[in-house]
Design brief:
Elements (H helix, E strand, L loop, with lengths): L5 E5 L3 H12 L4 E5 L5 H11 L1 H4 L5 E4 L10 E4 L17 H22 L4 E4 L4 H12 L6 E3 L2 H16 L6 E2 L2 E2 L7 E2 L5 E2 L2 E2 H4 L2 H12 L1 H9 L5 H15 L4 E10 L5 E12 L2 E5 L6 H18 L5
This protein binds adenosine-5-diphosphoribose.
């Protein structure tokens, strides 16, 4: 009997639960929410299920603290992890190295649980530090690189496009562009390939305004943390939902995706955000776009920042 797509979301926190919300509202498939906290995934799944008669979706939601319910998923989104926290005694934030060590263990164990039960799934990483956690998922799953990807570029690009549309007073639908590179302060927005209704951005905005937008995009995550005291989740959840949709509906959208590069853009064995065609098989193609000298330089800085974190991993 034909069945609906099956989407597992590990981590029923802010990003995971919001992602589940949009996935069922868009009728993308049945959703299994997994979390280590007892009651949390069950409660979120039940609360969302009770919205079904009002919102008019038929997709089912299951909440669990185990993995058997995730078997044979088509797509698995991993948001499990801990954020950087301020130590109440010392006032210091978790160091990057400590965060890598903590999240590496969480993402590694989650990936092993998932991979054994859903050997054909496309895995999408959301946990930070994003590019390094993609390396963990690739190593621990043993999956081909086409089926292990990360979400960062769609979010960074969404922020970039929103800031442009806000500045120009035009619809977000008419802004096209990409943010490449690693997820972090060194990400690479590409103004040379950004257009507004087909018109190059550089004809509509002076370079000083573009630079301000690039700066705000790079600090976009921090801007939200500064306001809320914790990370944003609407835009991250919407971004991962766009990737899931492209996979389960085989839309073959061209989305900036953290992919393992093997020669593309001149990089070897490194996860970096690049334009990729996403379909049922995961990454169906990596598109190499022409970059200007300044953009290439920025990509190199970004790649070095990713390498510095990947070096901390035992692979
Ligand atoms: N297995 C399953 N779930 C886990 C595990 C684990 N081993 N460890 C932690 N979790 C769950 C937490 O219980 C929590 O509910 O992951 C969830 C993370 O949710 P939030 O703390 O709300 O974080 P969120 O804002 O959703 O961010 C998700 O995105 O930006 C990245 O690194 C960040 O890892 C974070 C992820």
């Amino acid at each position: 009997m034909p069945r609906r797509n099956k989407i597992t979301v590990v981590g029923a926190g802010n990003v995971g639960a919001t992602m589940a919300h949009w996935a069922v509202q868009k009728h993308l498939g049945d959703v299994v929410l997994v979390d280590i906290k007892e009651g949390l995934p069950q409660g979120k799944a039940l609360d969302l299920s009770e919205a079904a008669p009002v919102m008019g979706f038929d997709c089912t939601l299951t909440g669990t603290n185990g993995y058997d319910e995730t078997a044979d998923s088509d797509v698995v989104v991993i948001t499990a992890g801990v954020p950087r926290r301020k130590d109440p005694e010392t006032g210091e934030f978790t160091s990057r190295d400590d965060l890598v060590e903590i999240n590496r263990k969480i993402v590694g164990s989650v990936t092993r649980e998932i991979a054994g039960r859903s050997p054909n799934a496309v895995l999408i990483c959301v946990s930070n530090p994003l590019d390094a956690m993609c390396h963990v998922m690739l190593a621990e799953s043993g999956f081909p690189k086409e089926r292990v990807i990360g979400m960062a570029g769609v979010l960074d690009t969404a922020r970039y496009k929103y800031f442009i549309s806000e500045k120009l007073g035009v619809s977000v639908d008419d802004i096209h562009g990409m943010v490449l590179g690693g997820h972090g302060d060194t990400m690479v927005p590409v103004p040379s390939h950004t257009s507004v209704g087909g018109i190059p951005l550089t004809e509509l905005m002076d370079s000083e305004t573009i630079d301000k937008i690039i700066h705000r995009t790079r600090k976009g995550g921090g801007e939200i943390v500064g306001l809320l005291g914790y990370s944003g989740y609407y835009a991250p959840a919407a971004s991962v939902c766009a990737m899931v949709e492209s996979v389960v509906r085989d839309r073959k959208r061209v989305l900036p995706t953290a992919c393992l590069l093997n020669g593309e853009y001149g990089y070897e064995n490194l996860y970096i955000g690049v334009p990729a065609v996403l379909g049922k098989a995961g990454v169906e193609k990596i598109i190499e776009m022409k970059l200007g000298d300044k953009e290439k330089e920025m990509l190199e800085i970004s790649a070095n920042a990713v390498r510095d974190v990947v070096k901390l991993l035992p692979y």
